[in-house]
Specification:
Helix content is 7%, strand content 40%. The protein has 2 domains: 80 residues, Immunoglobulin-like, CATH 2.60.40; 217 residues, no CATH class. It is mostly beta strands and 308 residues long.
């Protein structure tokens, strides 16, 4: 039977119904609201009526009273001869929950805290990773608007999951710690990286998705003619958490030449990652930098988008 899923973490534990409505005509596709089943803030409804192949509105009720109208988060599950698949309904989340960002707020400030890429890291050609932290996330992801009413951000991101991909309630694990990834180590391709806690979390995504990860940070060159690299330190894993392969998924390098020392540059590079298999969906990842001279950076935010 056709079904749909919406993320409403602020209503976790409630008994709700859902009704899918055409966004233009307001005509319901399922005339009778259906009971929603909930798991960790993700609500799913099953209908006997055919649902559209485009985004629609979901009217959510509690005890017959409308408590939410979720726009453009509709994505039915369609039956196929081989498997069930979530139709095209990507989304995004945004956070400033870096452990090293102890000043400023996500989206409302470009003020960060200096992190030094040292001569020792230069000499060892080591990637400096930027971990996440739940306490900093709750401090930094502070909604600066009033309309629409902000969703709770704790443990999720600045937008509180309001614009997540269909079927996804979280894309960051701010408390993740496993020695096989969080400790300092060396990738399977021979590249060293520093210790850091937390991780991107794509476990609710699916094979075939495309992740676009933007890293917003300030760069303060210390020496002219410095090349700065950015990467996702990516570790694919089995369903039980066993690592299978690790590597640096790099973006375009940035060069800071004559006249750049003593200045501050806002960088917003993007890294793409496709999910070829379930091992990619289970992957753990953190943003990182590497340079050929000492340099200072200020991690600010990351905008993480899933395209389908």
């Amino acid at each position: 039977m056709p079904s749909f899923s919406i993320s409403l973490p602020e209503h976790t534990g409630k008994t709700l119904t859902g009704q899918v409505v055409d966004p233009v005509t307001d005509i319901p596709f399922n005339p009778t609201p259906v009971a929603l089943t909930e798991s960790n803030g993700l609500f799913t409804g099953v209908t006997t009526e055919a649902l559209p192949s485009y985004s629609a509105n979901v009217i959510v009720r509690e005890a017959g009273i409308v408590i939410a109208v979720v726009t453009d988060r509709f994505a039915p599950i369609v039956e196929s001869s081989s498997s069930n698949s979530v139709e095209n309904d990507g989304g995004y989340e945004f956070t400033g929950g870096f452990a090293d960002r102890t000043t400023g707020t996500a989206g409302a400030s470009e003020l960060g805290s200096n992190v030094n890429y040292t001569q020792a890291l230069v000499d060892s050609d080591t990637w400096l990773r930027f971990g996440f932290d739940s306490a900093q996330q709750q401090t930094n992801d502070f909604a600066y608007w009033t309309e629409p009413a902000p969703a709770p951000t704790a443990g999720v991101g600045l937008f509180g999951g309001s614009y997540m991909p269909a079927g996804v309630s979280s894309m960051f694990d701010f408390d993740f710690n496993a020695s096989t990834f969080s400790d300092a180590g060396v990738t399977n391709t021979g590249e060293a990286y520093t210790a850091a806690d937390g991780s991107f979390d794509f476990s609710q995504c699916q094979a075939g998705d495309l992740a676009l990860v933007r890293f917003d940070f300030n760069v303060l060159p210390q020496i002219a003619n410095t090349t700065l690299e950015i990467a996702l330190i990516w570790q694919t894993r089995l369903a039980d958490g066993t690592p299978t392969f690790s590597f640096a998924l790099t973006g375009d390098p940035m060069f800071y030449g004559t006249g750049t020392v003593g200045r501050t540059f806002l960088a917003r590079p993007m890294i793409s990652a496709y999910f070829a298999s379930q091992e990619d969906v289970n992957a753990r990842a953190l943003l990182a930098i590497r340079a050929d001279n000492p340099i200072q950076v200020q991690p600010l935010t990351t905008l993480t988008t899933i395209q389908r």
